[in-house]
Amino acid sequence: MTNNLESTPQLHSVIESPDGEIQYCKPISINKNNPYINTPLDNSNNTQVECDGNIIYIPTNVIHNAVRLQRKAIFVRFFCLLDFIINIFISFTTYYTSFFSIFISIISITGYYSTFTYNKRGLIYYLIYQYLLTIYKIVYIIFYILAAYNIRSIYLNNTDITLSFSIDNTILLSLFLLTQIYITYFIQQFYNLLPKISVENQQSIYLIV
Hints:
single chain, mainly alpha, two-stranded antiparallel sheet, elongated
């Protein structure tokens, strides 16, 4: 599929109004790895965009998803990079090397790079990890609350370390859980925006005006 060109293109960017209406104004730039640039052209409604210094056409009805995908990618990269840094820190500061932390670090950095290539296969592992982490936190807070009905405190491993049950701790754990649920939901949204066909399996065509 070849993108038609004009000698004096008028580029537009996308603005979404509160009611969901899409408007076009100043020039918009689409990342060269964005999978939506490979969407087959619509015979009746295409829009010009700038891509890697070139001018191409993409169907107007996919521009909104293309822009959303790029914006969400920034935050997903942050989550992946933060996970990577935390787990690397844990790996090198524990008494013995934490192989689990190293494993999670590899998953996180894989997810991080997948946001640049928009690779679904690379991102799915990080998304699964986030779901497992969410389930773990849900189970943990449930057992925490159930235990609070039976005892006020417990001793860990027969040491002087005491785990106290309190409203403050419950609220704090709940906030952690809500944050985790939101992160998982956000990454799932990013994953859902990726087209079914991987960018590596499509032919990218960049035409210079």
